[in-house]
Each structure stands twice: as structure tokens, then as C-alpha cells.
Specification:
about 1100 residues; two-stranded antiparallel ribbon; 8 strands
Length: about 1100
């Protein structure tokens, strides 16, 4: 009775649960401290402070017996900053105290379990045995990790020093803490001494694995022979529930079992010499791995550590030889064995997923298969990660590199997704199973027990009542299930019935253990599927294998499984280590890095396909058909024999002719790669990494946007040095091919290509894109201003109204480009389509800037000749005085030159504006931006108005404008001496200079009407007619050879202006002169009637 009462009061189950949870937190905290102190960026500032250097050295040397009073000169740094030192080291000090507290409770519980002489068998009291072994391994890992913290003595010593300087005494826990650090200078030796008394309990728990571990540690050939994880191997039994006597053991991690066996027998090594079964189990585990994980990326070189430990013990020479033999076995055989396992699991998981995706109802009876598949795969994945980072020197290093890892990981993620998606199927099935089968079997088992104490009876009765009360309606009503209390009661029952001389020894009732282990698994499938998935398929360490898979063609479709693993990081933290907030940033950054790399590969291949299509389309452009046209015209002639070695040019479309379809072209390979990469995006629409929702396709669109912008600019082929550039129509054709090819991307993956193209092209209508780079708007604006219009201003290029373009003048040297190929209607329409209204507005603003600079110079000339111009304005009807005044004018040629520049610019602006014909609001600036013609050029009006300054009055500005018009009018006769001022019937008008004057004079007049009064415009025909009539008095024909052309210019100025009329012109200039001028200029032109 005393023993029974003690068993109930010991609360072994509760203590094991709490201490395992607490130990996990302490272990993570120790690992965090180790990483923080080892990282130069995160290392505590007090350890890197130059002023603390002597104190740190002194404390490390004298620890733990530090004289805080006698050697104050070594501790002056701490004395000066004692409060800062206390605050900086207190969290570390408290964390080390947590280790002491954890160690004390572990010692107490282990001693209690030994005193109770508990029975352990992983197949019977699974949870009790697992928690016991987990506690031992967690405690050992905490101590080993603590011993690897190099700065622990400095941190604790500095805290205690600052504490004594502040409070006058040392911290009460410091002696124990210092003693612990000293004792664990050689942790394994100390740990083996501590666990010596627990050898019997530990050995019995480990030996219970002798049936489970060998069954799990089989080669792939035996897995294939048994058709492991296959639902199709026995079709008749496909609906039968998957169950066995050891449910939880079936998905127990191999690494966990190896950690139990190897570390357990290291701590209780005497069993290896006294028990043959222990020795065989230990050697089997040593033959499986070279490294084990303590926590996260903290590894344990098991053979080296074990050999170093056993070398110090007498009578262990055989064990040292066994270790060396096992290590050689691992190096020779394990790489290939695990490679074959991974190969098998890839096929098995693919088959399992395909069957369950097609028939998700099978998830109910075959849930165990999914959990086993995930656990087996996770073990193989983590084995490769551990060993590939610490690869031994072997002849077959390829066994430790797996470029097909992405596929295995992909199907693991897919199976996890099925379990989450069809959680309601699992709940429906297992709730019915628990209520209608498990509860009945458990009740029958209890009834057949010949002894059942009260406490145990109460627990088992509560199990039956809880399970019997379940119904399918709870699932349909989406009620929350929580069986944690039932599972904890089962753990309590295991503890009660596993002690020595228990009234109800569990080992005598294996049927009870079997049914309860089955019930435990079924309850977990109802209320904690996510926890089981985390336990069996946590693969955060696999991320290091990404680079091995991304270069393999067949693995590209599985690459998205790597960033999806980043969503698991949120489950890796622990409440005892809240400082690990950096994990969120790192996991998000890692996820983004993977997505960036996948998006980069995908965008590269998409744009390579676009470029290939662009090259093929470029062959079909009209400019390449000249050779074919020439051949067609001469096809009746005998075809010349090709010269030897000469390769005949292939016609467009020849690349589609194939003799053998199995021969893959470069385009075929690119499309295959694109298909593989786009398939990876089907894994998930978005990823949740902590509190962040990450959408993979947005990374692809972002990459495509950036690259496409660069490509469009590059396709313009702009060379600032040579002023070479692609024709707008060629660029537009290329962009259309890119756009059409990009839209085919929607066949592979659900992305909004229309939004992508709109964003890119809209950015190209601005002078700079979103990254601050030059756009085609900027490039073409610069080229037209600096190249075409500059040459037009110098009369190397002239405007041809008939052809609606600029053309090159005939000169001796070869022109750098043909103006009509860049300025005809088709090219300017292409330009308008490329840069749109926004781009044309930017172009117009730049053109206006050049005009305003010319107008500014013209105003300066007006100011210089103001007195003369005032007189000419008032004496326009007195020819003699006008002639005398004209001789006194200065800068007339300069005026005409600047007027020519303005005219050229306005001619080009008018042509570009005519190519934009979309309908919008018909108000000046909006209508002009839309390509509609206005009587008044709003851009020119705005530009001229912006030139007005505050120190010039409106009347003064009016006067300057009127005199400028007078200046222009009296300068017109000088054009008669210009060779470029002749009227050309062939081109439909005058050459450059005279045409430019027409446009700029008309435009300036229209713009001036908003600044000046309309009646002032009549000064132009009045003044011009007075000076032009004087040309008729000149008898020397050479000086007035283009007189008739200048007469016609005056006529055309009046026609262009909406504010001047023919009546106004005839009042001061005889119409007979205009009629004679037209007859004269048409006389030399030969009219050909077609």
C-alpha cells in the first residue's frame, strides 16, 4: 500500500512532461547564447569593449575563485560600468541558473524512477519510455551545449563582480554555478559518472528498441520486396485500416532512436561489456551514421567522441576497436545505402500522393501510411544534410550529393498539404472509429481484467465514457476536439502500472497497451494532425540542399518546395527564448532568396524564348524581302551555281522543318525548361512565413518587369557616341512580339501578364522608369533633338510636306542616316504608340524649351534694335524710309537662323502631334495631348508665357512682341538670297528655311494672340509687303532669284493664320504678284500624267 500510494503521489508522468518541455527551452536558450557569443555582429558589447579586455582575461584565468577586492586594478573597467555590466549579463546569468535548476529536477526524477524500479518497454508503455529517454538525451544535450559556450565564465564572472561591487556581496547562486562550470570542463566524463547508478533503468529502456530499431533500419531492397508504403500492392485490402501492435513506433524517427542508443550507452557504458544484446544494438547504431544532431545545427561526431571517452577507461580496448570498425563500415557502405533509400522513397511518395489525391477518402484508413512516409523521408533528408556538410574523405563523394532532393521534398510537402486539406475526412473517419470500435474493444479489455485498482479503474472508465460520447455530428458542426487530457491520463496510467510491484502491472496486460496506443494515435488524427506533421516532417535543415537541385533539369518543377519549408520556421521557437525574433527575419529573407532565384531562372528562360521569337519575327520584316523580290524578278534567268563552300541563306520558317522529331531544338529545350519551372508554382499560391504572406508569382512578375524594361531600352540600340538608334517601327514590332510571347506564359502559370505589360509600357512613357533608368521616351527625345532636328536646323535635312516627313539634302558626304526612315508617318505613329500621350508631352516640353531659348535670344535682338523697329513699324508705308531704316538693322541673319530652328522644331512637333488621334476632352492642353489640332498651341503659349518676368510690365511685353513680329517681317526679303529658300513643286512646298519660317511665324502669331491684342497681327503683312515690294525694283535677277518663292511665303503665312485674311493681304500686297509668282515657280516643273 505504501508503494502504491507513493506511485500515485510521485506524479512521474507530469514531471516527465514538464521537464521535457522545460529542457527543450533551456537547450534552445543555450544554443542561442552560443551562437550569439560566436557571432561578431551579435556578440555582447561588454566582451568586445577594449576597456573590458583585461577584466575578461583576469576572470577567465581565475574563475571561479576571483578576488574582487585584491585585484581591483584588473577590474577597473567593470567598476566604471557596473550598472551596464549587470544589465548586459543578467539574462545570461539567469539562463545558466536555469541549467542548474533543470539539472536538479532531472536528478531528482531519475533517482525517483530508479527507486520505483520502473519497467520500460517502447512497445508497451511507449509514451512513458519515450519521455524517459527524451529527458536523458535533452539533459545531455544541454550540458554538452553549455560546455561549448566559450564565454560562459566571462559572462558569469563579470555579472558576479558587478553584483559584488554594487551590493557588497556575491550572488548567492554564484558558488554553485562556478562549481558546475568547473565540473563540466570535460562533460562526457562527468556525465558518465552521474549516470552510473541509472544503468539498469537506461539499459532496460534501450533494449526495448531491439525489435523496433532493426526493423526500421533496413536497406531499400527489403523495402521494395515488402512493397512498403504501397496502397496498390494489395488492392483488396485498400479500405482496411492500417494498424499494428506498435502504432507509434512505426513512425518513430530513426535519428531519435540512434540518439537514444548511442548517447544512452555512452552514459551507461558498463552495459556494453556485460550485456551482449546492448553491444549488438550499440554497434548497429554506430554503423548507421557518422554524426548526430544535438540541437538544430549543433552536431556530435559520434565515433570520435565515443572513442575519446572510451580511451580513458580500462578494459575498453575491444570497444575502441568496435568503434573504428563501425566507422569504416559507415564510410564504405552508408552513403550508397541511404542513396538507394531516397531513390525508393521518391517513387513511393509519388505513388502514395497520386492515389490519395485521386481518392482522398483513403486518408482515413491509410493515415498511418502518410505519417510513416513523411517520417522515413524526413530521416533520410536530415541524414544527408548532416553528412553532406561534414563529408568524410571517400572515393564516392557523389553518395553525399543528391541533386534530386527537391522531388522528395516536393512530395513531402504535397502529402502534408493533403493532410491539412482533408482534415475533415480524417476527423470523420477517426471519430467514428473511436466511438464505434475503439471504445467497445477497450471496454471488453477492461471487463476481462482480473484485477483493477480504484485509481486505474477511474481512469479507464473515463477513457470509455469519453470515446463513447463521440458522434459524427460533432464533426459536421465543426466542434473543436481536444483529447490532450485523455492522452495525459494514459501517460499517468502507464506510470502507475510500470512501477515495481504495481497492483496492475501493464506488462501483464499487453492487450490493454495495444488498444490504448491505437486509441492515442486515432485521437491525434482528430485533434492534433498539425502537431504530428511537425513531429514527422520537420525539414528546415534541408534548405542547404537548394543549390544541388536548381541546376538539374528534371528537378526544376519541384524547386518551390524549398521556400515552402521556410513556413516551418515559425514552429521552431520556444517561449523560453523570446530573443530569437531574428529567426523571423532570417526565415523570411531565406524564403525571399529562394523565390528570387526561382523567379530569376523563370524570367530568364521566358525572355530567352521572347528573344528567339523576336529574331524569327525580325526575319519577316519588309526590309529583308529585297533579295526575294530581286530573285522573283529574275527567276526566268538561269540560277547561278553557288560557289564552293558558300552557305545559302535559309528562308524564314526553315527552322520548323524537321527530319527527326526526336531531335530537340534549342527552342524545344527552352520550352521544356519553362514548363518545368512553371510547374513548381503549382505547389502553393502563397506562403505564410510567421506573420508574412508571400506570393511566389509576384516575384516572377517583378523580375519580368525589371528585365523587360531593360530589354526594351536595349532593343532601341541607342549609341550616344555615334547617334545610332533603332527605327520606332522596328522597336514597336519587337515589343509586340515580346508581348505576344509573354501572354503565352498564362498557359503555364496563373499570372496577370496584361498588368505586367501595362506597367512596363506605362513606365516607358515617362522620362525615367521606377528604378531611375532611362526610358525609350528619354532616348528618342534626345535623339530627335540632338540628331535629326539639329541637322535640320543646319539645312542638312529638310521638311517635305508631300511625303509628310523630313528628307536628306543632297550633299557630297554620305549621311549617317536617312531622315525619312525615322520621320515618316509610319515611324511617327509607331513613336506615338510607343511613348503615348505622356511621352509626347515630355517630347513637346523639351521642344518648347529649345524654342523659348531661341525666342529669348530674339527678344535680345529686338531690344538692341528697338528704336529702329519702332520707326519701321510706324513708317511701313514709306518705302524710302523703310529702305534706309533696314540698312541700320543689325543681326538680321541671326534672326533668320533662329527662326529656322524654331520652324524646324514646330514642323516636327506638328507631325508628331498629328499621329496621336485618340479622342478625349477637347480643351486646349488635353486636346493637344490627345493629338487634336488646336488654333492655339497650348505648349508654345505656356512656354512663352513662362518667359515673362516680374520686372517687365504687360505693356512692355506687348511692345517687344509686336516689334519681334516687325523684325521678322522686315527680315523676310533676305531669304531671297538663300539657296534653300526656293519653292519645290516636287516636295509640295518650300525647302527647309522658307517652310520653317512659315510655321514659326504662324505659330508665334497664334501664341501671341493670347498675350497681345489681335489688331497688332496686321503689322506682319503690312511691314512684310512694304519690304517685299522693294524686291521688284531690283533689276539684278541674281540678287532676287528666289523673289517669287518669298512672295508665296507671305501668301502662305496669311493662309496658315486663323487671324489674318486675304482681304487684309490684298489691301497692302497686289494679288497679281502672287499669281505671277505661282506661274513662275511652276514653269520649270514637268507634270507627268499617270
Amino acid at each position: 500500500n505504501v508503494l502504491t500510494t507513493m506511485d500515485y503521489q510521485q506524479k512521474l508522468a507530469e514531471k516527465l512532461t514538464i521537464l521535457n518541455e522545460r529542457g527543450s527551452g533551456v537547450l534552445i536558450r543555450m544554443n542561442h547564447i552560443k551562437k550569439t557569443c560566436a557571432d561578431p555582429k551579435q556578440r555582447p558589447s561588454i566582451l568586445t569593449d577594449k576597456g573590458m579586455e583585461s577584466a575578461v582575461k583576469y576572470i577567465n584565468k581565475k574563475f571561479p575563485n576571483i578576488d574582487f577586492r585584491g585585484n581591483i586594478q584588473n577590474l577597473t573597467g567593470i567598476q566604471r560600468q557596473k550598472s551596464e555590466v549587470l544589465s548586459a549579463t543578467s539574462s545570461y546569468y539567469d539562463s545558466f541558473l536555469d541549467v542548474i535548476e533543470f539539472r536538479d529536477h532531472v536528478y531528482e526524477l531519475l533517482n525517483t524512477i530508479d527507486a520505483c524500479q520502473c519497467f520500460f518497454d517502447i512497445a508497451i508503455n511507449f509514451d512513458f519510455t519515450k519521455n524517459y529517454l527524451d529527458l536523458i538525451i535533452t539533459y545531455t544535450s544541454v550540458i554538452i551545449t553549455l560546455s561549448r559556450i566559450d564565454d560562459k565564465k566571462a559572462l558569469v564572472g563579470m555579472f558576479n563582480c558587478a553584483h559584488e561591487m554594487t551590493n557588497g556581496c556575491s550572488d548567492s547562486s554564484y558558488p554553485r554555478l562556478g562549481q558546475m562550470f568547473v565540473e563540466y570542463e570535460h562533460p562526457w566524463k562527468k556525465l558518465t559518472e552521474e549516470f552510473g547508478p541509472h544503468t539498469r533503468s537506461v539499459t532496460s529502456a534501450l533494449l526495448s528498441l531491439k525489435m523496433v530499431y532493426p526493423r526500421r533500419n533496413l536497406p531499400a531492397e527489403q523495402w521494395r520486396g515488402a512493397q512498403l508504403l504501397s496502397l496498390l500492392s494489395a488492392p483488396a485490402a485498400m479500405l482496411d485500416p492500417a494498424c499494428c501492435d506498435t502504432m507509434s513506433c512505426e513512425y518513430l524517427s530513426m535519428e531519435v532512436m540512434e540518439r537514444w542508443i548511442i548517447i544512452g550507452f555512452m552514459l551507461c557504458h558498463s552495459s556494453l561489456n556485460s550485456n551482449q544484446a546492448s553491444l549488438e544494438l550499440w554497434k548497429m547504431a554506430l554503423r548507421s551514421s557518422l554524426y548526430l544532431t544535438l540541437t538544430r545545427d549543433e552536431m556530435l561526431n559520434i565515433h570520435k567522441v565515443t572513442e575519446d571517452l572510451f580511451d580513458g577507461f580500462k578494459g575498453y580496448s575491444k570497444r575502441v576497436a568496435d568503434i573504428k570498425e563501425c566507422r569504416e563500415h559507415v564510410i564504405v557502405n552508408c552513403g550508397a545505402m541511404h542513396r538507394e533509400r531516397r531513390q525508393f522513397l521518391r517513387g513511393a511518395l509519388k505513388e502514395l500522393f497520386n492515389v490519395l489525391e485521386d481518392e482522398p477518402g483513403l486518408l482515413g484508413p491509410k493515415a498511418l501510411f502518410v505519417i510513416m512516409a513523411l517520417s522515413f523521408s524526413r530521416d533520410e533528408v536530415l541524414w544527408l544534410v548532416r553528412h553532406s556538410e561534414n563529408m568524410p574523405k571517400i572515393k564516392t563523394p557523389e553518395d553525399y550529393v543528391d541533386n534530386q532532393m527537391a522531388e522528395l521534398l516536393f512530395y513531402m510537402q504535397k502529402l502534408r498539404g493533403l493532410m491539412r486539406k482533408y482534415n475533415h475526412v480524417l476527423q470523420r473517419y477517426h471519430v467514428q472509429y473511436l466511438a464505434q470500435f475503439d471504445a467497445l474493444v477497450l471496454n471488453d479489455t477492461i471487463q476481462n481484467m482480473y484485477v483493477c485498482p480504484e485509481e486505474e479503474s477511474v481512469l479507464m472508465s473515463s477513457f470509455v465514457s469519453t470515446l463513447s460520447g463521440l458522434s459524427i455530428k460533432q464533426v459536421e458542426n465543426k466542434e473543436e476536439f481536444d483529447f490532450r487530457a485523455l492522452r495525459l491520463d494514459w501517460l499517468r496510467l502507464q506510470a502507475y502500472t510500470s512501477v515495481n510491484k504495481a497492483p496492475l502491472p501493464l506488462k501483464d496486460y499487453p492487450d490493454l497497451a495495444k488498444v490504448m496506443n491505437l486509441i492515442q494515435f486515432h485521437t491525434r488524427m482528430v485533434d492534433s494532425v498539425e502537431e504530428v506533421l511537425q513531429e514527422t516532417s520537420d525539414t528546415v535543415h534541408i534548405l542547404k540542399m537548394f543549390n544541388q537541385s536548381q541546376d538539374e533539369m528534371t528537378m526544376k518543377r519541384y524547386l518551390m518546395s524549398f521556400p515552402s519549408v521556410c513556413s516551418h520556421f515559425s514552429q521552431c521557437g520556444h517561449p523560453l527564448c523570446p530573443e530569437e525574433v531574428i529567426m523571423e527575419k532570417r526565415s523570411l529573407r531565406l524564403c525571399v532568396t529562394f523565390l528570387e532565384q526561382i523567379a530569376k531562372q523563370t524570367s530568364n528562360i521566358v525572355l530567352e524564348i521572347c528573344a528567339e521569337q523576336c529574331n524569327l519575327n525580325e526575319q519577316l520584316l519588309p526590309k529583308h524581302c529585297a533579295e526575294n523580290i530581286s530573285a522573283a524578278r529574275h527567276r526566268k534567268q538561269k540560277k547561278p551555281v553557288p560557289k564552293k563552300g558558300e552557305v545559302q541563306k535559309e528562308k524564314p520558317g526553315a527552322e520548323s522543318l524537321r527530319k527527326d522529331r526526336t531531335v530537340a531544338t534549342n527552342v524545344d529545350k527552352m520550352h521544356l525548361t519553362l514548363t518545368e519551372l512553371c510547374s513548381s508554382y503549382s505547389l502553393c499560391n502563397d506562403l505564410i512565413v510567421f506573420d508574412h504572406i508571400v506570393v511566389p508569382t509576384e516575384f516572377l512578375l517583378s523580375h519580368l518587369e525589371t528585365r523587360l524594361s531593360e530589354i526594351i531600352v536595349r532593343m532601341a540600340n541607342y549609341n550616344q557616341t555615334t547617334q545610332e538608334i533603332a527605327r520606332p517601327s522596328d522597336l514597336l514590332a519587337g515589343i509586340r512580339v515580346y508581348t505576344a510571347t509573354l501572354h503565352s506564359l498564362s498557359s503555364y502559370i496563373n499570372v496577370d501578364v496584361t498588368r505586367l505589360v501595362k506597367n512596363v509600357l506605362l513606365q516607358q512613357t515617362q522620362p525615367l522608369d521606377s528604378r531611375g533608368g532611362a526610358t525609350i521616351t528619354n532616348i528618342y527625345t534626345n535623339w530627335f533633338l540632338e540628331c535629326l532636328l539639329r541637322q535640320a536646323s543646319n539645312s542638312l535635312i529638310v521638311h517635305c510636306p508631300t511625303m509628310h516627313c523630313f528628307i536628306n539634302q543632297t550633299i557630297d558626304s554620305e549621311p549617317s542616316f536617312r531622315a525619312e526612315e525615322f520621320s515618316d508617318i509610319s515611324e511617327l505613329r509607331a513613336l506615338a504608340e510607343l511613348i503615348g500621350p505622356y511621352g509626347l508631352k515630355f517630347l513637346s516640353e523639351n521642344l518648347m524649351w529649345h524654342i523659348t531659348s531661341q525666342v529669348s535670344e530674339l527678344k535680345k535682338l529686338v531690344i538692341e534694335n528697338m528704336d529702329i523697329l519702332v520707326q519701321m513699324r510706324s513708317h511701313f508705308d514709306k518705302p524710302e524710309e523703310m529702305a534706309n531704316l533696314k540698312k541700320r538693322l543689325t543681326g538680321g541673319e541671326n534672326v533668320l537662323k533662329r527662326m529656322t530652328i524654331i520652324g524646324v522644331i514646330l514642323s516636327f512637333k506638328s507631325m508628331a502631334q498629328d499621329c496621336l488621334k485618340d479622342v478625349t476632352l477637347s480643351v486646349f492642353e488635353l486636346a493637344s495631348a490627345a493629338g487634336l489640332t488646336c488654333d492655339i498651341d497650348p505648349a508654345l503659349v505656356t512656354a512663352i508665357r513662362s518667359m515673362q518676368t516680374d520686372n517687365i510690365s504687360v505693356d512692355e511685353e506687348y511692345k517687344l512682341t509686336c516689334l519681334l513680329l516687325v523684325y521678322i517681317a522686315v527680315s523676310l526679303p533676305a531669304l531671297a538670297l538663300d539657296n534653300n529658300s526656293s519653292y519645290s513643286r516636287e516636295h509640295g512646298g518650300e525647302y527647309s528655311s522658307i517652310r520653317s519660317h512659315l510655321l514659326q511665324t504662324s505659330a508665334l502669331k497664334r501664341s501671341s494672340c493670347l498675350i497681345c491684342r489681335l489688331h497688332s497681327l496686321c503689322v506682319v503683312p503690312q511691314t512684310a509687303s512694304s519690304t517685299l515690294l522693294q524686291l521688284g525694283q531690283n533689276v539684278e535677277r541674281v540678287e532676287v532669284k528666289n523673289r517669287e518663292s518669298i512672295y508665296l511665303l507671305l501668301h502662305m503665312i496669311v493662309e496658315e493664320s486663323p487671324f489674318l485674311s486675304q482681304d487684309m493681304l490684298e489691301s497692302c500686297f497686289p494679288y497679281v504678284l502672287l499669281r505671277n509668282a505661282y506661274r513662275e515657280v511652276y514653269r520649270s516643273f514637268i507634270v507627268t500624267l499617270g
